[in-house]
């Protein structure tokens, strides 16, 4: 079984070639942070790409990606992000519609690899984006496949239900004691 997992990871690593631009995005509620690296993990931007979680921000990201591709003569793009919460849905689906390959990185992978870059466990959005990009370049990702709208909505409803259920369970409940009668025959 291990050899099958290793083979699958090797295939993901081989997908990242010398002509691949790897983008890592740290997802947030209002403003996302992105970092760009090449296949070796060399950072290609002086500053992180900060963009808003709306159509204007997405357009800014794609124009930044195209500029970086042209500047560094890179033909392929892979964008990695964590699949936490629900804020990543819009950007992931929008990028797929633009023809950009999107992959998902496990949040635990990001958490465990924070210190690899600078020997510091500190957390900030640009650093997290860089850690995500590194994880993608090393093959620690899952390909994203957009689901139909109905499945996406079901996932959102499930999330809302779980949230409401946990709120209900946190409220103090009055204990109700019922009496039991044993009937002899």
Description:
With 185 residues, the protein is an alpha/beta fold. The protein has one domain (2-152): YqgF/RNase H-like domain (Nucleotidyltransferase, domain 5, 2-Layer Sandwich). It contains 7 helices and 6 strands; from the N terminus they run αβββαβαβαααβα. A 6-stranded mixed beta sheet has the order 3-2-1-4-5-6. Strand 4, helix 3 and strand 5 (101-105) form a beta-alpha-beta unit. It is globular and about 55 Å long.
Write down the domain tally. Answer: 1
CATH architecture: 2-Layer Sandwich
Written as H for each helix and E for each strand, in order along the chain, the element string is HEEEHEHEHHHEH
SSE class: alpha/beta
Radius of gyration based on Cα positions: 22 Å
Name some characteristics of this structure:
185 residues, alpha/beta, Nucleotidyltransferase, domain 5, six-stranded mixed sheet, 6 strands, 17% strand
Give the helices and strands, then pairings.
Elements: H1 2-15, E1 20-26, E2 31-37, E3 49-52, H2 55-72, E4 76-82, H3 88-97, E5 101-105, H4 107-112, H5 115-118, H6 125-137, E6 142-143, H7 149-170
Parallel strand pairs: 1-4, 4-5
Antiparallel strand pairs: 1-2, 2-3, 5-6
Would you summarize the structure shown here?
The chain has helices at 2-15, 55-72, 88-97, 107-112, 115-118, 125-137, 149-170; strands spanning 20-26, 31-37, 49-52, 76-82, 101-105, 142-143. It has 185 residues and is an alpha/beta fold.
